Amino acid sequence: MTFSESQLLDAYRRMRTIRDFEERIHTENTTGDIPGFVHLYAGQEAIATGVCIHLSEKDYIGSTHRGHGHCIAKLCDVKGMMKEIFGKQGGLCAGKGGSMHIADLSQGMLGANAIVGGNPPLAVGAALTAKTKKTRHCAVSFTGDGGSNQGTTFEAMNLAVVLQLPVLFMIENNGYGEGTGADYAVGSKDIAGRAAGFGMPAVRVDGTDFFAVAEAAGEAIERARNGGGPSAIEAVAMRFYGHYEGDPQSYRSAEELKRIREDSDCLRIFRARVTAEGMLREAQLDAIDAEVAELIDEAVAEARAADYPPVSELTTDVYVSY
Amino acid sequence: MAKKTIREAINEALRQEMARDPDIIIIGEDVSGGAGGSGEEDAYGGVMGVTKGLIGEFGRERVIDTPISESAIMGAAAGAATTGLRPVAELMFVDFVGVCFDQIMNQAAKFRYMFGGKARTPMVLRTMIGAGFRAAAQHSQSLYHLFTAVPGLKCVMPSNAYDAKGLMIQAIRDDDPVIFFEHKALYDIADEVPDEAYTIPFGEANFTREGDDVTIVAFSRMVHIANEVADKLAREGVSVEVLDPRTSSPLDSDSILESVEKTGRLVIVDESAARCGLAGDIAGMVAQEGFEFLRGPIRQVTVPHTPVPFAPTLEDAYIPSPAKVEAAVRQLLDSKRRRMSA
Q: Which of A60, A130, A317 lies closest to B116 in CB terms?
């Protein structure tokens, strides 16, 4: 699979935006101005991007509690996201959802989802719409190693195979479900193999390698669009931060954290490859870095300056009509 | 006008709406039946035959048999509804909600609010309720109170065939998730049902008997028990008003309060639950909003705080009976007479 220069620049911009967004939330969160709790996606950028680079706004994705990266990769408005995370007016969900529920249906983003294993059945539903209406669109369910152990995921996979639905189960194995290791909690140690057992093509890829993810996802999504039914990909990439911000992470060693940053930084790996192979120039990437930094600065400033929603909105939008 | 059973009325509503709108699909376990087997297609048409014949008209792409996977069915319906279809999903028995409530309660019900008013989830969840079939604890409950407690859901429980058709068409055309509770003991109850499509708005109670002495509020099958008691007492000159709210969410509180203002006495008959059920909910509402209308205590005739039992003697004692409802009404009237003679 070959990528054009503009596709690679686009991919880098999405990954860089996710990284800067998350690093900045990590800092902002220490001020106490972000209500509730947040789960950061840093370290896994190549996965969301490698998948979403193949999708249009008419294709749907379902996400997880660690959903900022999926939103950005699906081109949700970054400023609207930041306002939402601060619980402010103008947020993508009008301040009613927060970090764990950011959604933008106009971008095909069916929502971050605070229930582990919550979205696979929903993504199957979006795929059912595509199949019924014969749109050639597809759906992607992002789940983790934790979600891969949920019954909802098994049910969704089986139903998708039975109905031959255009859906990709994208399982991000980041090594931990909350504070418990995947090596302990995933009985077979082989999530892709387990998905294959449901009767769909499934592969395991290096989730720090944008190219590996993008190739596997491209193949699966093409198959889905052509009526070939569901697929699964297990992508392995460690998260840089804890389960939630403030997580002391005593379940893993300081050496492990250091090693992840040094050896498994998908942005660094991407940059090294595209520049070494002459696909992109350092200056192009530096320019994106600068633009993204500015965007994130603006997003934080605007989110901080925005008002909280008025109390009159407490009871609105429970129903379309009641 | 032709007489049709509730089963036929719901089937007709589904057929007419599916013919009108190609975005409507039916999805669930054995909604046709026969998929993948060596026998006939449409072997079941739903375990109670409610969706019988629809696959012949609309095909397997719109009448979709599923594996026994309730979370996947509910989630697929919710996901399809937010992305452009209008699914009518079937949860065979409401008791099975235990394995799939997340997809209803945390997903479908919350999309609109949680996403800041941008989502629409026009799905209907058809499900069976009710004791009386000797089906014991896991196939006999009337758990509509659980769904009524969830903001974002609408809850509908028709007591007759006319309402069943009009409420089903309304449910399908509604843009919010609607839970449609069908009582398994009522499927063969027949009424005059117009052939053409019509809707009945949610949140509008139906007065099945008019009266001045006592108000009985009842849902689903309990409406028939209330009517029976009202008819019996009418022969003694006692005038009982029976009010069927038809939907528990939204609830027609205004009609309940107006009736209680007129009669001053309230009996609520409810098959859902003794604790935190619809009877308690309505009693609380009337105590708060209409206390000054009341001339005696609010009487709740509910199932006991037990699982549904199996043995016929026990199950019969479990279900609110006409005798219990009549006793509750008489108690209220006796307290009136006592007060008048004091």
A: A317
B174-233 confidence digits (pLDDT tens): 999 999 999 999 999 999 999 999 999 999 999 999 999 999 999 999 999 999 999 999
Judged against a pLDDT cut of 90, whether residue B342 lies above it is answered with no
**Does B170 reach chain A within 8 Å, measured CB to CB?**
no
ipTM for the whole complex: 0.96
Q: Which domains does chain B have, with CATH numbers?
A: 3-192 (3.40.50.970), 206-341 (3.40.50.920)
Residue type, B156: V
d(CA B251, CA B277): 14
In a domain, A40, yes or no: yes
Interface of A with B in 151-210 (CB under 8 A): 151-152, 155-156, 158-159, 162-163
- Mean predicted confidence (pLDDT) in B275-297: 98
Contact A158 B103 (CB under 8 A): no
> Each residue of A70-89: pLDDT tens digit?
999 999 999 999 999 999 99
Helix A45-52 and helix A5-29: axis angle, to 10°? Answer: 140
How many CA atoms within 13 Å lie on the side-chain side of B108? 36
Contacts of B337 (CB under 8 A, 6+ apart): none
Domain enclosing residue A105, as ranges: 5-313
Number of domains in chain A: 1
Contacting A residues, span 141-160, partner chain B, CB-CB under 8 Å: 151-152, 155-156, 158-159
